[in-house]
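Exercise (ungraded).
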Amino acid sequence: MNVVVAIKKVVDTSEAADVVEVDAAGKDISKAGLVSRLNDWDGYALEEGLRWREKLGGTATALTVGPRDWDDVLRTALAMGADAAVRVDEDAASMDCRSVARILATAIGKLPHDLVLFGAQSEDFGSAQLGPMVAQMLGLPHATLVVGLDVNDDRVHVSREIEGGARELYTLTLPALLTIQTGLNRPRYVSFSRIKRAREKEIGVTTLHELGLSSADLVPSVTLERLELTPAGRRAMLISGNPEEAAGALATLLKESGVI
Amino acid sequence: MGDILVVAEHRGGQLAAVSLEMLSKGRELANHCGGQVAAVVIGKDADRYARRLAQHADTVVVVDHHGLEDSPAEPSQRVLSSIVSERKPKLVLMGHTSFAMDLAPALAVELGAALATDCLDVSARDGVFRVTTAPYNGKVRAVYAFAPSDIIIVTGRAGSFPVEQAQGQGDIEVLEYDVEQDGQRKVFEGYVEPEASDVDIAQAKVVVSVGRGIKDSDKLELAEELASALGGVVACSRPIVDYGWLPAGRQVGQSGKTVTPKLYVALGISGAFQHVVGLTGAKMIVAVNKDPHAPIFGVADYGIVGDLFEVVPALTQKVRELKA
């Protein structure tokens, strides 16, 4: 079974990360000082794809659209066990989702694919659009927010997350495209020696031109006008002071309001 | 500027609250721009929602077919694609739900429509539709403008659009669509309801909740101690369940539980909307986070910007003193 996993590189702006700032152009955040890494959701998608490739044979290819410094997330994929890595050499940061989806669909169309996996969304813009767009472009059945899957001959049984902790079950005929939700597996630990070996593996680099795409195929339908910081503590009354003082003031407030 | 079509969603006999929110927004935009609002509701016995929807919409299109249970995305795509192609609305609105996440991007490609997802606001001024989103874990706001396009599809975040009172009586049309599943390439097999949990966080009076900022499963103890001092239980945001540090029954949010405590304490939780939709029923929300721009401070009543590893032990101590 041939698996393609589409991945991307993001800056870490999770709870564990530092404070973010908007850059001078006002179109993105300032990436200086922030750690860049594989999109969280994509780690689960890679792990799932690799497990099924290991079980059923075939190839697993990691694919991205990005500049040269995105090679490191492809190397992570190779170190995890992907057979091949392909990068479409294009900085897609300012493109709309439909254009990126067009590029990915064209690239996936040229790769052997029975199962195409995406992370359910990205940590940066989080629009969750790419997977189902690519599925529609390639004419593949799809399911999003997948929290469990089982490949059986030419079918895949999936469990997808819906609101309130409930799930929907579907059976899809391969080839199919799934977007993977976090938590459906534990992405494997990648040892330093594997990362080192992955550095020697080749990354297939292709271009829009080689894919037969031109700017006429990538006309944006929606444009980012500006980005601004979310106002700090818009609603909350922020309690100042050192940890000791702030904690004391908060405990007093809780007492006064009768919750303790 | 043209008509607006709102896709209403339902499950288990309940109309989704977000559908009425989107319908209220649709009404406001239509009043502003001069256009009609149509609501579409698809599925078995969907006519039961028609009157409620007709209070806001000029027209309610009911697609009632025994082949469509609740709101499954896949056959809905073919129904909507057909309705949108026929009626040519300028804007299609729906909630940013699991249903829409499966449906909207594929529908946009099929119709050649422009799409924006998970929007906090939608506006129409001088002939341009704009939306606001909250990228980078909600730490920034982004404003997008749509190019003049035939059709625009927008999915809106639950809780972002107030539901307006409306006493209209729109027309109700019942359509028959003979929907077969898509050549059996995607077959709906059923639902699985969530499992029962060890601790019922939904009933707790005090909930101390931890997020990724806790960094290490050993540190959950800090939250346990604060919860014990406050007489509450420990809950969490999604990453903590994904890491296997707490069971799924402890998760608060869209894919977890809705809680209604008198006090909710959020520790190291940035406040992604998937989490905060689960605590709209909390009487008081307190947040500790090191980032002053963390969206949790947008919903909390009181906040401490600081290192939770320092603040929480101090808070536990103070609470114990005040209770003693």
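Further reading is listed at the end of the chapter. For now, observe: Chain A has a mean pLDDT of 94. The radius of gyration of chain A is 21 Å.
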